Input
Amino acid sequence: MSKIHVQDLNLYYSSFHALKDVSMNIEACRITSMIGPSGCGKSTLLRVFNRMNDLIDGVRIEGEVLIDGKNIFGRDILLSELRKRIGMVFQRPNPFPISIFENVAYGPRVHGLAKSKDLEGLVERCLSAVELWEVLKDKLHHSALSLSGEQQQRLCIARLLAIEPDVLLMDEPCSALDPIATAKIEELCFQLKERYTIVIVTHNMQQAARISDDVGFMLLGELVEFGQTDKIFTNPVDQRTNDYISGRFG
Amino acid sequence: MLRIFKTRETITKIQQRQISEFIIEKLIFLSGLASVLFVILIFVFLLKEGVSLFKTVSLKDFLIGKFWYPISDPPRFGVLPLLMGSLWVTLGAVLIAVPLGLGCAIFIGQIVPRSLRDYFKAGVELLAAIPSVVLGFVGLVTLVPLVRHLFHLRSGLTVLSGSLMLAFMAMPTIVSIIEDAFNAVPKSYREGSFALGATQWQTIYRVLIPAAAPGILAGVMLGMGRVIGETMAVMMITGNAAILPKSFFDPARTMTATIAAEMGEAVRGSSHYFALFAIGIVLFLITFLVNLVADFVLHRKK
Ligand SMILES: Nc1ncnc2c1ncn2[C@@H]1O[C@H](COP(=O)(O)OP(=O)(O)OP(=O)(O)O)[C@@H](O)[C@H]1O
Ligand SMILES: [Mg+2]
Output
């Protein structure tokens, strides 16, 4: 069974048809990239998985999304539980304007997961996982906003790991970072892939080729092609995919 | 090709522009200067008249004297009961208005459906449009008997009635400033919090309120400034008795009410007259301090 199963998904922003008959399977413990020109619906698709679109007025969704075989639009779904399992990293790092420690502790506190005694250990583990612990262990009570962009993005990932999700959704997580920082975040994704299912939106074709196992190419709300990375990049079936990856449009 | 040499025509144009620029600049400077000058003049006048009191009454007697008997013989000019009257009423109003205002701002800004938001906002703003004497009058015939019945008092003209009334008057200021503070919190914080599975309420009190804290404090301070300076309504419903209040159920008289009530009858140049100015100085210093703190809190963040 695939981790995320999408069947005939349609999404409308009021009257605007933003996702058209999208069907695909995302497998566990793999990195899946979504690529496509600006405005084709990559972020929208990602935000379906943790139901962030619920926050927007006038959104209508049809079709089926199963995560671990469970319909995420079902009546028995608890939104906070769903979002705890499906974490999201945003394009711009968005740590809360509180201390570094409190940022990581935020999720566990909100979900009542850890007593304050265990929190310290948990924070250490999560910061270590994103390789921030050594640098920041003496600054845990500084404001998270004092960190560099890359560190902030790492902190946002650590913040997610603290609630032990099993899917990580990343919406252009490197677009605000320089190439070196980007390489570091990519390295981190590789390490995380062992335990997490990662879906990453990127505009950077090289990045998609470098890090992902599967690639989905979207165009104007349609999922044009979906498959293994090497196959998509070397031997795409659809002419539009070919045009896009060879840089002929977008 | 670039023209390096200016024609005579363009030179006069440039000169004209420079002249008008000069005039506008000076005018703006003058109006800025004028407002500062007015404040200084008012303060100097206040100080001059107020300080004259201390030729006949010692500063100590004025500040910590427990009795305000301006027309008995000999007169006593102790500002303490009035000061405490103002502070009690203000404290009460703040205790009521802050939680209410915070709740109202959260409700209007975060919870009410967008389509209804403007109606609620207009409602709160309408509250600011009611003249204070009208509010005082309405309070006198509704709030005062209510307080009397609810707490089984001999009279409903108490600090509590005044505080309730003033809380209402401070609400528009507090609500709109706090609401602005919430709106200024980046949307990404909200999203980040929801994406971690936090509920609406958790997001509000764990992220939004801390992020908006300076703005909230400023709103409280400015609301407080409004409450301390308010005169009419509070004069009508606090009982107007210049005694040291011991609880919220005692009558009280504020500094502003005293000035308003007695300025008309005080003989110009008498100790009474100067004493009222001295109260004015105290009031001025308090509001100045409150505004200063609000300003400090607001600008520290930037
Ligand atoms: N809240 C919204 N209301 C209405 N239309 C929206 C909304 N959000 C996105 N859209 C529209 O839906 C389409 C897809 O948007 P989306 O943000 O998913 O694109 P994207 O592929 O992520 O683009 P980008 O690469 O620029 O981030 C766009 O045409 C956009 O204008
Ligand atoms: Mg996007």
